[in-house]
Amino acid sequence: MGHCFSYPSSTSKTDLHNNGTTNNLSNGTKFSSTTATTTSSSIERRSQFSEAASDTSGGTMSHSGLLLETPHLKVYSFMELKTATKNFKPDSMLGQGGFGKVYRGWVDTKTLAPSKVGSGMIVAVKRLNSDSFQGFAEWRSEVNFLGMLSHPNLVKLLGYCREDKELLLVYEFMPKGSLETHLFRRNESFPWDLRIKILIGAARGLAYLHGSQREVIYRDFKASNILLDSKYDAKISDFGLAKLGPSQEKSHVTTRVMGTQGYAAPEYMATGHLYVKSDVYAFGVVLLEVMTGLRAHDPRRPNGQESLVDWLRPELSCKYKVKRIMDQGIKGQYTSKVANEMARITLSCIEPEPKNRPHMKEVLDVLEQIRKLNVVPDTKSAVASPSRSPHHYHYRAGAAGVERKRAPPGRFGVGK
Ligand SMILES: Nc1ncnc2c1ncn2[C@@H]1O[C@H](COP(=O)(O)OP(=O)(O)OP(=O)(O)O)[C@@H](O)[C@H]1O
Ligand SMILES: [Mg+2]
């Protein structure tokens, strides 16, 4: 590890290592530090839900943690979820992440009880790896946060199961998979108008989290956690690392450093201090991925180019260079003004100083303006007309001639 992080103080203060939940696929390496970093008081180090619970009556304490009462979530037995997924049949697998495997399942539309394959509605069932380090905490965080929050741009958690060692989560099914799938795993380029639509949806989701009465810091913003419904409306998923924001008199929370390589903000890497603006940084990294068609972190790139931000930050402030770094597959689908405005907002999101980054609400406003700006008068030079289905788009190399790769073994595309 450490090859991507060039922040000098990070290694001295945080002992980064793969945490056992690591997803070795190319969508990013998860990391965590071994211990809580430095200055946090014991109060700050408490689980986010011991704090949440003090504001909420009716939580149920279990031997290994607090689960808030979430009456609208269905509690499933393991047997029921076995039925819903045809015994976790490999051919019903939608994908795999650090938490475990995700399966397609069927439930009754009204009661959400398991139903026969083909009747009722499809759901996504996430099953925790039994050897997953940190798994219970992430599972509980997911249930507690998604059980309390509701917004059109957050994925809906329908229920969960906890039985012996088995921990599962049941979500609404997102038929178009993740932004990551479309940007990096398919052999056709993904149209600009869908890219900007998805960014706006995801920005709305984050702005909602940051604007809630007690801010929620999401902490795991990345392309694979932006899921897409049938109309490519974006929904943020995976609240395993989410934290309640600082109490009034504080500017940040102090936590163990956890996240995905390439997306974590420099101040968080260096000190464990987490701000809502750390999410804004990660959003900026996704903006850069969307512009360039390149991954936030890719160890297969030449020396000095592994970290997308470190590599391309200097290009963002120079108009003629911006043109060069844009994904070649979407050439002609956006105006130069749009590319430059995208570069500008990306640069401000990835500002090294958190206080210099914009709020998500401002980012959202800018992206909406950028969408309106994009009137491409002549589509002759475009790769293809944006009104066509993305599946009609042909393969093109990404920026800087880096070729798209097919999904590595172990990952399955969804929503084809
Ligand atoms: N609700 C859902 N509907 C459809 N597909 C889903 C759903 N949730 C997850 N998936 C798919 O399952 C796969 C694994 O998702 P998961 O969230 O477990 O891992 P990840 O985000 O890829 O990685 P990480 O664990 O590092 O966050 C992804 O390819 C995702 O597209
Ligand atoms: Mg995920």
Describe this protein's structure.
Residues 49-62 have a biased composition (Polar residues). It comes from Arabis alpina (Alpine rock-cress). InterPro entries: Kinase-like_dom_sf, Plant_Ser_Thr_Prot_Kinase, Prot_kinase_dom, Protein_kinase_ATP_BS, Ser-Thr/Tyr_kinase_cat_dom, Ser/Thr_kinase_AS. By secondary structure, this protein is of the alpha+beta class. The chain folds into two domains: 9-172, 2-Layer Sandwich (Phosphorylase Kinase, domain 1); 179-412, Transferase(Phosphotransferase) domain 1 (Transferase(Phosphotransferase), domain 1), CATH 1.10.510. 31% of the residues lie in helices and 16% in strands. The protein contains 13 helices and 17 strands. The protein has helices at 10-13, 42-45, 48-55, 78-84, 135-148, 179-184, 192-211, 266-271, 276-292, 308-316, 319-325, 336-349, 360-373; strands spanning 16-17, 30-33, 60-62, 65-67, 74-75, 93-96, 100-107, 121-128, 157-163, 166-172, 216-217, 226-228, 234-236, 243-244, 253-254, 258-260, 273-274. It has a six-stranded mixed beta sheet, with helices on both faces. A hairpin with a 3-residue loop joins strand 6 and strand 7 (100-107). Helix 7 packs antiparallel against helix 9 (276-292) and helix 9 (276-292) runs antiparallel to helix 12. The longest helix has 20 residues, at 192-211. The radius of gyration is 21 Å and the shape is globular. The protein starts with 9 loop residues before the first helix and ends in a 43-residue tail after the last helix.
